Every structure is written in structure tokens, then in C-alpha cells.
Amino acid sequence: MSEAGVIHDIGYQRYEGQRLGRRAGLTALYVHGLRSSFGLGRSAKAKIFPWLVAGIMLLVAVILAAVRSQLGEVIFTYVQYDDQMAWLIIFFVAILAPQLMSRDIRSGTLPLYFSRPVRAADYVLAKFAAMVTAVWLLLGVPQFIMFLGAAFTTKTGARGVWNEFLDLAPGWGYSLLWAVLFSSIGLLIASLTGKQAFAAGGIVAVFLVTTPVVGVLSIIGSTTANSLAGLASPMTLIAGIGAWLSDGPVEMELPIGRFGPVYAIEAVCLIAACLLLLLARYRKVASL
Amino acid sequence: MSTVALITARGLLGRRRALLLLPLPLLLIGLAAICRANNLSPDQWGQAVIVGLGFAVVLPVVALIVGTGVLGSEVDDGTLVHILTKPLPRRDIILAKFGVAVLVTAITTTLPLFAVGLLAGSAELGIALAVAAVAGSIAYSALFVLLSLLTRRPVLLGLVYILVWEGLLGRFLSGTRVLSIEQYVITIADKLSPTDILPSQVGITTAIVMSAVFAVVCTVIAINRLGSFSLAGETS
């Protein structure tokens, strides 16, 4: 008869190594999110859609750079490039946001993340940063290719390259604006459902539906109302800010009048609201 | 066959997510009503609302949600195997699901488009838009039902079609318009009730024949695909 109360040593070992804290968890989530945005470290099927979009964007940039260097013609400026690629950016966001958010809900990894030192705010921040980086790379790299095309064929030496860079820098900033606004909206929608398909459909619906609303609002009412019509859609919102900041000759279909600051304020409020709602969403997550 | 249709309809509409189908049509009617209330001429807002919102967004997106929902969700859940093991011809399964998809899409899109047509002009325009929407529902549903059998990511592929093919390329390259359901729908509506609002860019014969070709070919391929459907799962 065995003695009662004996605890047998069955060989469990304590972890003796260094314990990584919140920051390491945040960095890991960020790197993982950024890699999986482009399907790195995942199956070939997961790479199809992100690289399809990236491929089209790069192809267009190469063509633009070639035309610029051979014929000396500027078809799109850096800022116009972003505007023209709006549909592809929407599609990219619709692929990316569900991949970053909905997959974790669907596969039930959220309780595992949150049983680590990582907090909800860290999780949201890491995902947001990963997505902003990914979207910005999607726009910034082709813009850089366009820059290289222009820089190597400049006639005025270093000064020409520097002038070209002064054109590129606002273009990069504009891309960042696209990335931040679209990421915050996309992530918020994706965080509401565990099904990637629904999240993707929802994101596209939100972005596409708002465009005709702008079209209608811009023809009814007074001039003031028309100038404010662009507020209704994220795309015209960004275009409005771009027009306000560039302050130059803008050949937009949508005159914003003197309401530029209103556009900027709404963009900031929209981003802040989306991020706060995301934080509220992750205050409590369903366990398995 | 009717049981399959019934189960499909219940799976589609019986849950809370059926409410997701409501906002798009309501927005369509709402915008048209606002324009009408402001006494604007339909020439100004008709194209933005009917083509820009109705035919370019509401019709394809509703068809995408419904078309991939009837079959795709069952593939995802793995409940498709229960239907496949019943002694039913695969043809009947596809036809039942396709029928439900067409019916739901058509009801969700024709009613608001008819209302918009009424607000924009006459009952004649409303009927033309409604008929065109029915034709579009049939073609889109066939395409999206097929997509949900060809790939595990039918929604993304469907979005590629709507955004890149019809949206982006349709604007820049005139050649792709011949293979764009959106253009068929616009053409059919325009020919039924000629106005200045709708820009028809393909021939009426092309539009009708190609819509039918889309519907028939996609359905036949879908039946063929379901006949050799493999249930092996994959993760990615």
C-alpha cells in the first residue's frame, strides 16, 4: 500500500531562462503581422492575393518610370499615383485586415495572446502598426521606383535629384495618410467578425458605397454643402486633405473651397474613433 | 430538390446576418429620395445613383454575399457532405442553390432599383431597371456560385472580379467591357427604356447573349465541379 500524500516527481522542469516582457510580445506580433500581410511564412496560396495587388502596383510604377525616363512625360505625379490606385488599395485592405484580425478570432488564439503579458492595447497597436507598414510599403515602394526612374535620367545632376526627392517626400507622406486611415477603418470592421469572407465583403462595401454618396451630395444644396461633400467618403476625405496641404493648382472634380481644415479634423477624429472602438472591442474577448 | 432549396434559404436568411443585406438597398432608395426631394433633374444624379451605386456596387456586392453564401458557407462548415451523401443528383443540388441565390439577389436588388427608377423618371424606367437587375442577378449568381466551388476564397476572387476587372480595367480598357456583367446590365436597362442617364457601351445582342452564356456556362461547370468535389480540407 502506497503512502498517502506523496508527491511524485514526474520530471516537470521550471523555466529558468529570461522572461521577455510586453515589449517582446508587441514586437513579435508586429513582425508576425507584417510578414503574414505579404504571405511570408505561409503557404503559396496565401501569397497569391497580396502579391497580385503588389505586382500590379509595381508594374504600373515601372511603366510610369519608363515613360518618364524615355519620353520625359509625367503621367501621374506621386500624389496622383495614390489616387489612381485607390481601388487596389481598397482591395489590399480587404485582404489584409481580415487576415490580421478575423483569423485570430476564428482560430481562437486571442485568449492565448491575452494570457501573456501582452495587453489589449499592445495587440491593437501591433496589428495597426503592421497593417500601416504593409499598406505604406505597397504604395511607397512603387513611388520609390518612380523616383529612381526620374532621378537617373535627370539632366541637372545632384540638384535635379534633390528636387525630385522634394516631390517624393510629400508623396510618401500622402501614402502614409492613406495607410493610416484605411488601416484603422479596415481593422475595425474586420475585428467584428471571425469570418474572413464577411469581413472582406464588409470592408469593400463600406468603401465603395460611400463614393456615390459623395457624388450625390456634391450636386445638391449650396456651395458650402458641396464643398463638404467629400467628407462622406474616406477616399475623397484624403484627396481633400491632399488638396488642402498641397495648396497648389488642384485638378480635382471636387472643390473643397476653404474647408481644408475641416477635412483634416474629420480624418484625425475618424482615425482616433476607430482606434478607440478597436480598444473597446478587445477589452473583453470570448474564450474557447 | 425543394428541401435543399428550403435548407439553403433558411441558412441564408434565418440568421442575424441576413440583416446585412438591408442597408445597401435602403441607402440606394434613400439617396434617390433625397435627390428627388431637392428637385434636382435626374440627369444630374441618375448616373451617380443608378450606375455608380446601384449597378456597380449594390447589385454585385449583394450577389457576391448571397452567391458565395449559398454554397461557400456549407463548404466552409463541412455541412456540404450531408447533402452530398443523399441520393440526389449533383445537378439538382446546384440548380436548387442557384435558384435560391438568384431569387434572394433579385428580390433584394429589383425592389430598390424599381423605386429609384420611379423616383428618377417613370414606371417604365423602373421596370427597365428591375428587369436588368434580374438579368444581372442570374449572371452574377451563376458566376459566384461557380467561384465558391473553384476556390476556397470565393469572396476574394469575386472582389477581384468586381473591383479590378469591372471597376479598374473597365474604366481604362474598352476590350474588357465585353466580358463585364455590369455593362450587360446597363445596356439592357438602357435599351428597355432609353434615357440619357445610362451609358450603354456594348450592343444589346451581345449583352443578352453574353448574360445567358455566363449563366449557362457557369452553372454547367459548377455542376461538373460538384460532381468531382473533394472534401479534403486545407488550412491557410
Notable characteristics:
heterodimer, A: 288 residues, mainly alpha, B: 236 residues, 0% strand, membrane (chain A), ABC-type transporter activity (chain A)
* End-to-end C-alpha gap of chain B: 33 Å
Number of domains of chain B: 1
The helix content of chain B, as a percent range, equals over 70%
Uncertain segments of chain B are: none
Any overview of this molecule?
The complex is a heterodimer of chains A (288) and B (236). Chain A contains eleven helices and no strands. Chain A is an all-alpha fold and 288 residues long. Chain A starts with 21 loop residues before the first helix and ends in a 7-residue tail after the last helix. Chain B is globular and about 60 Å long. With 236 residues, chain B is mainly alpha-helical. Chain B has one domain (2-227). Helices cover 77% and strands 0% of the residues of chain B. Chain B has helices spanning 2-13, 23-37, 42-77, 80-84, 90-120, 123-150, 154-172, 181-192, 204-227. In chain B, helix 2 (23-37) runs antiparallel to helix 3, helix 5 packs antiparallel against helix 9 and helix 6 packs across helix 7. Chains A and B meet through helix 2, helix 4 and helix 8 of A and helix 2, helix 3 and helix 7 of B. Chain A: Keywords: Membrane, Transmembrane, Transmembrane helix. Chain A: One of its GO terms (molecular function) is ABC-type transporter activity.
